Structure formats: C-alpha cells, structure tokens
C-alpha cells in the first residue's frame, strides 16, 4: 500500500472495514504528513495527539473484535477553530479566547465522534470566521499550498489547505458568504453548503436565517457524502433542524447526466464582479460540457438586489454576534468585524425591512428560475487566490469594490436562496492556480445534487485539463 494519507476517506474506510488498514496506521500517516507540511502551510493550529492516538487504538480494537462499525470509523478529521472541542484548544481565531479549552463538544463535533470520526486537530480560520483570507492574531495566516505567497481562502482556509496537502482525509467547515466554497475552490478540493437546517447547530445567534451552514470538506464528492452521515441530524435546539436519514448519504449513485437539465451563468447577468481571466476559464469549462447534459443553457437568475440585501442582513448578524465585543474590545478585533458592526449601527429598521423584503423576493424568484432545471453552474470564485500581503481585492477589472464582501457576490448571492451548493474543482485558472465551479441544486435537493456532482466529478477526471489540481508536496516538505 502507498502512503495511507493519500487515500480517499471512502477508500480508507473500506479498507478499515475489511481489516486491511489499521486506524492507527492511517492516523500515523496523517501525523507524519502534518509534521512535514504544516510548518509551511499553517493549516492545523491545535492538536492533542496523545488522546488521538488512544482513540485510534480503541478503533483498531473494535475492528479486530468484529464489532459493528459506524460510517466514519477510524477516519481522522479536522475541526474548524470556530467549533468547540472538548479538551482541545478553541480560539475562534481571536485573542479574546487565545487560551480557551472547552469542557464540552459542540453538537456537530459530538455527532462526528459518534459516527466514528477521530478528531485530530483544529483548522485555522480568520477571527470569528470573518473574511475571505484565513489570518488572525493568534495563529497567523494559512498559506495556499499551490503558492505560499497567496491565501488559502476563508473562512475555512485551514480545512481547505489541510485537505489539499493530504494532512487529513476529512475536514469540517462553515459557510455564510462562501466560507466553505471559497477555500475549496482556491485549494482544489470539494466543499458542500447543504440546505440550511440539514446540519443543525444548537447555538445559532439568530433563530431563522439561511446564513450560516456547517458542513463537510473533502477531496472528492463521495467523501463529502460519507462525512454527511456524521454531520446531519435533528436537534430540537435548532429551530431550522428537521428529521433526516443519515443512511441516505451512503446509498447514493452517480446521476445519469444525460437526464439533467442545466443552466449556467458567468456573473448573474453582470450583477457579480468577475475577473476577466476567471471568466475565460469558466467559458472553457462550459464549452467542454457542451454535450454532457440533456440541456445546457445560459440563464441569469434575478440577483439585482442581492448585494445590498446580503450586506444589510450580514450586518444584522454581526450586530447580534459582536456588538458587545466591539464596544469592549474594538482595539483587538479584526477590521472585517469592525466594518460590519459599524455599518450595521448606521442602518435603520427601515433598511432591515427593505432587506427582508428583498430576500423574500430573491427566494421566490429563484424557485421559479428552478422550475425547469435541475442544476445551475456558476464560477467558484470571482478572482484567483490573492496574495496575502495584498489583502482582499479592492477592485476587479478596474471597478472599485465598495466593501470587503463585494468581491464575494458570486458566492454570497447564492447563500440568500437557501439552496444547496457544492464547490467542485476542475483544473487550473489562467494563473496556474486551482479553478472550480459552484453547482447549485434544487431546494432541499441535497441528495440529488451530490449524485449529479459525483457524475460530473468523474467527467472532469477524464479530461486532462479539468482534473482536480494537486499541489507539489515535495516542494512543501
């Protein structure tokens, strides 16, 4: 067997079930990769390897005893440093929690453990997940494994970089304006923003909102489906949660793409800023898919109000989450948090009412848009991964970005729809960096979207120009 850290999660789990791969062997391979690569990347920021090794030995004994094994049995997992992990340092990327060690797991972490996952460590994130670059005052920046001068993306940038470099087979992340999809695209891996509520969270700041979604990141779509078995559930503390069947994610088969009706859009009809180089890359992908589906048509959803709507509602969330922190600790908070809170304080109830009304219309119009299609394909990001020293793009194609979220509208507009979205890698962009697309499925069509994505991933893998990009690990060791 080659280095076990290079195995997909699905293959590793299959071999564990057959007794051909020890959970301990897999863990040690991942630890070796972490020790070799992480000093250059800074993706994994906290570990408890003594505990992790003990858990791997327990998992190994369960295999040898012939016990029934849960779906994630023995698989090493990284948890984004926005989720509390019992006994393992959790900072939220903030100096306010620099030395905090939780006494209990968050519910999602507990579900992943119950499903057999072994929590190896925490993955880096910007402070409180605010930003499209993973950087903070506690741990510093996470670097892109394809170019160490560039960002891995955010806010799940630690998870994206850890996966791309085979440090871990599975990682958890979270997504508001694209925090799963952005680093997945820039690191050449897969990220899944499921229908809000499918992955419950017991500590939502606001009860009813499509915004924040927790979910899986992996190196393939089947691995995403496998990890979903440990993510989904029903939690009465989350008003958006509903009963679901985790087993359904193990029973998926690739879709017949000849039966799939597809629409595509470059920039929602000029609404979302899009770098011209990225536009060209996206057009080549669409051209390569010309005879793949039942139909493939250019169509633009009406997102004319999405930019203002998203910014206002985001500010409402930030006021609810960070107003007290802003008042007491403004001097050590990231500029992104400060900007959101201060913008929110200038808004009125009338502004919020307008945004809520816009949101309702965006949602309803998008349901009509999807009446005769099964899938929408959109560029994964508006720009290539930017240089860490340059910061978030201040302009695209010569047009100034008015706030730090403007360059993210290609992703954040889709957040407002409540539809599941999967980021799928497909080759390289015009700068030789990872490129990818967003696949948008029907409302609550998570299983169908994953089946379509499985088939499309196979299609991409058969084209030399569209295969998942892989960094040169020798350059990182």
Keywords for this structure?
477 residues; alpha/beta; 11-stranded mixed sheet; two-stranded antiparallel ribbon; 13 helices; 15 strands
Give a quick rundown of the structure:
It contains 13 helices and 15 strands.
Description:
The chain is an alpha/beta fold. The chain is built from 13 helices and 15 strands. A hairpin with a 5-residue loop joins strand 14 and strand 15. The protein is globular, with a radius of gyration of 21 Å. It starts with 8 loop residues before the first helix and ends in a 16-residue tail after the last helix.
Which helices and strands occur, and which strands form pairs?
Layout: H1 9-18, H2 23-41, E1 44-47, H3 49-64, E2 76-80, H4 107-114, E3 118-123, E4 143-144, E5 147-151, H5 157-164, E6 170-175, H6 181-187, E7 190-193, E8 213-218, H7 221-231, E9 261-264, H8 276-288, E10 295-298, H9 306-329, H10 335-345, H11 349-369, E11 375-379, E12 395-396, E13 399-400, H12 409-415, E14 421-428, E15 434-440, H13 446-461
Parallel strand pairs: 2-3, 2-6, 9-10, 9-11
Antiparallel strand pairs: 1-3, 4-5, 6-8, 7-8, 7-14, 11-15, 12-13, 14-15
Instruction: Characterize the main sheet.
Output: 11 strands, mixed
Helix content: 25-40%
Intertermini distance: 21 Å
Outline: globular
Strand count: 15
> Taking all residues together, what is the mean pLDDT?
97
Q: Structural class per helix/strand content?
A: alpha/beta
What value does the Rg take, in angstroms? 21 Å
What strand line-up does the widest sheet have? 1-3-2-6-8-7-14-15-11-9-10
Ranges where pLDDT stays below 50 over 5 or more residues in a row are none
Q: Give the SSE order as H and E letters.
A: HHEHEHEEEHEHEEHEHEHHHEEEHEEH
SS summary, helix count? 13
Tell me what portion of residues adopts beta-strand conformation. Answer: 5-15%
């Amino acid at each position: 067997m080659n280095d076990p850290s290079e195995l997909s999660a699905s293959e590793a789990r299959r071999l564990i079930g057959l007794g051909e791969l020890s959970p301990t062997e897999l863990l040690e391979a991942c630890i070796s990769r972490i020790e070799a690569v992480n000093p250059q990347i800074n993706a994994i920021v906290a570990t408890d390897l003594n505990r992790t090794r003990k858990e791997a030995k327990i998992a190994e004994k369960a295999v040898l005893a012939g016990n029934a094994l849960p779906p994630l049995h023995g698989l090493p997992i990284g948890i984004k440093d926005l989720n509390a992990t019992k006994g393992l340092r959790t900072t939220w990327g903030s100096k306010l929690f620099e030395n905090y060690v939780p006494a209990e797991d968050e519910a999602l972490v507990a579900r992943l453990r119950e499903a057999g996952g072994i929590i190896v460590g925490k993955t880096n994130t910007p402070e409180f997940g605010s930003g499209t670059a993973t950087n903070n005052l506690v741990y510093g920046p996470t670097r892109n494994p394809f170019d160490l001068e560039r960002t891995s993306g955010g806010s799940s940038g630690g998870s994206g970089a850890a996966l791309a470099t085979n440090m871990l087979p599975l990682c958890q992340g979270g997504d508001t304006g694209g925090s799963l999809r952005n680093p997945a695209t820039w690191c050449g891996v897969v990220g899944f923003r499921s229908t809000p509520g499918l992955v419950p969270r017991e500590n939502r700041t606001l009860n009813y909102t499509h915004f924040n979604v927790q979910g899986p990141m992996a190196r393939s779509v089947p691995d995403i489906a496998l990890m979903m078995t440990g993510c989904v559930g029903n939690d009465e503390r989350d008003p958006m949660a509903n009963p679901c069947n985790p087993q359904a994610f193990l029973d998926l088969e690739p879709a017949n793409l000849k039966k799939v009706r597809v629409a595509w859009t470059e920039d929602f009809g000029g609404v979302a800023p899009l770098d011209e180089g990225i536009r060209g890359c996206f057009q080549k992908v669409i051209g390569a898919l010309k005879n793949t589906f039942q139909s493939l048509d250019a169509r633009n959803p009406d997102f004319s109000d999405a930019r203002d709507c998203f910014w206002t509602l985001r500010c409402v969330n930030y006021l609810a989450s960070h107003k007290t922190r802003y008042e007491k600790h403004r001097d050590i908070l990231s500029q992104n948090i400060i900007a959101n809170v201060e913008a929110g304080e200038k808004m009125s109830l009338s502004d919020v009412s307008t945004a809520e009304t816009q949101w309702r219309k965006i949602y309803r119009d998008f349901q009509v848009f999807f009446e005769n299609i099964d899938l929408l394909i959109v560029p994964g990001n508006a720009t290539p991964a930017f240089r860490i020293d340059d910061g978030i793009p201040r302009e695209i194609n010569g047009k100034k970005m008015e706030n730090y979220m403007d360059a993210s509208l290609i992703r954040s507009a889709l957040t407002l729809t409540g539809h599941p979205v999967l980021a799928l890698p497909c080759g390289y962009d015009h700068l030789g960096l990872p490129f990818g697309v967003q696949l948008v499925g029907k409302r609550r069509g998570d299983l169908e979207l994953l089946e379509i994505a499985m088939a499309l991933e196979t299609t991409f893998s058969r084209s030399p120009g569209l295969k998942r990009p892989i960094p040169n690990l020798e350059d990182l060791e």
